[in-house]
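Whiteboard transcription, Tuesday session. T.W. wrote the structure tokens on the left side:
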């Protein structure tokens, strides 16, 4: 009985510390805003920033290409020949391949 009274006496004096420690543990590890969730969100943000950089670069390159296509008919011809194998009436196209069968 003496040990039980001593336990309750110590518990009574440290009740605020115990409540604070339990609250920090619950909020820090089990809540939606826990440290683990914050780390996951930080990783997601890093991945999304790298995607933004990639798509910004793609947009910049495509914008330059669209401007070239709008203002330069020779560039349109070059794209048609290289990508779509189009040709003029008086020429032949030979496609060389490195594929080995």
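and on the right, the sequence the group agreed on:
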């Amino acid at each position: 009985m003496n040990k039980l009274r001593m336990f309750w006496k110590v518990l009574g004096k440290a009740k605020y510390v115990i409540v604070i420690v339990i609250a920090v543990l619950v909020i820090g590890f089990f809540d939606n805003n826990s440290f683990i969730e914050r780390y996951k969100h930080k990783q997601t943000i890093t991945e999304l920033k790298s995607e933004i950089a990639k798509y910004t670069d793609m947009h910049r390159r495509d914008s330059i290409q669209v401007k070239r296509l709008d203002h330069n008919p020779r560039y349109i011809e070059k794209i048609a020949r290289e990508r779509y194998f189009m040709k003029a009436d008086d020429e032949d196209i030979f496609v060389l391949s490195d594929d080995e069968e």
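Someone added at the bottom: The CA atoms of residues 55 and 65 lie 15 Å apart.
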